[in-house]
Amino acid sequence: MNGKDLEKELLWETPHIAKAAPAQREEAQSFCEGYKKFLNEGKTERECVKTAAAMLKAAGYQEFDRNRTYQAGDKIYWNNRGKALAAATIGSLSLEEGFRLNAAHIDSPRLDLKPNPLFEKNEIAYLKPHYYGGIRKYQWSTVPLAMHGVVVRQDGEVIEVSIGEKEGEPQFCITDLLPHLAAEHNGRKLGDGIKGEELNIIIGSIPFVGEDDETLKTPVKLMAMKLLNEKYGMTEKDFTRAELEMVPAYKAVDIGLDRSLVGAYGQDDRVCAYTALRAEIEAKSPAHTTLTVLADKEEVGSSGNTGLNSDFLLHIMADLAENMGAHFHTVLRHSICLSSDVNAAYDPTFASVYEERNACYINRGCVLTKYTGARGKSGTNDASAETMAQVIRIMDENGVYWQTGELGAVDVGGGGTIAQFVASMDVDVVDLGVPILSMHAPFELASKLDVYNTYRAFCAFYR
Ligand code: MN
Ligand code: MN
Q1: A single GO CC term, please (predicted)?
Q2: What is the gyration radius of the CA atoms in the chain, in angstroms?
């Protein structure tokens, strides 16, 4: 017997998609134009919900109404406090056959403003943030920042804030030390390069000059507050009634001469949110009822009532089950969920933290992650062989390029996703998503071919 043939028959390797399916290069390029637009429109969970809701409404989705009776093909959605969202297409099978559930998250690591953030030091006005999610703090200095969020004013009006995104708008920045004076600073450990309380964001340096300027203690702070007041009608006290998020101000771009990668802030996990949303909208007459969830708070452990460690998703499923006369526990037991989230792509520059055989690679397709967690699989949903088999069968039958991947080598670190919270609802679940380079950095990279195949996997899952 020929060894090459035997190798083909018995061994398994994942190809570079551009070699195996050259036609997909063009398809992936064009798919990612919409993806980049989505990234630019949604830099916070609230903005993603707004963009997604507009896409759903344009596609004929209506807000869930428990007094209506739903039929196969109907498209509905739920908006959870403007910060999380779910959308469904009713299937032709009974709901007791289970949901096809796909859950991604739309919150990303960032710098949230503290409740009392504004101060002046040596005639510079600053904002104090408290970082949100896992960041390497030193990466966030000398990056142009934009301010996004909402302020609820004394009069009860909710004001949407966005400064630094439109052409010509001012932006904000955290300083770093010049190399000439960094001899001692260079001795710091990288993790302490910029410490939490050194993340001071410059927002102004011109003092308010009034007729009584001699008596003012913080005229630069006052000037900054005056400018915010002119724009949004807010006062300093209103910061306590606000959710203001500082995020990188730059737009999504193509990276590489071949334009093979997307470079942008917040691809974890808006890449899965966008691909899932597109697949949901395109599901016309699915057999199983689809349910696409865009969740908040994943980066801080899914806690809070817009995160998946709350009952909001359970209540959505229960409401629909009741509406359709289905036995809820049966619905849950028969459901299968993709916890759609990114994984760490193998980075040759930092090879030692990966285990080559079980890392995921850019341009080899979406990554099926059986388990996450840390140490001895602590804190993970370890998907069953049967669940893996079901998802692999769907992808293989539809010619989706996929690979398997672990989050780093054993004992190097770890992490978690929303999979464990879905599993605790008595639903089968496995992680699937896009390999990312520089994950959680202010600027992350993803392969367009991988983004496209993740979308293809989600379409196949809903078919
Ligand atoms: Mn994620
Ligand atoms: Mn993350």
Answers
A1: cytoplasm
A2: 24
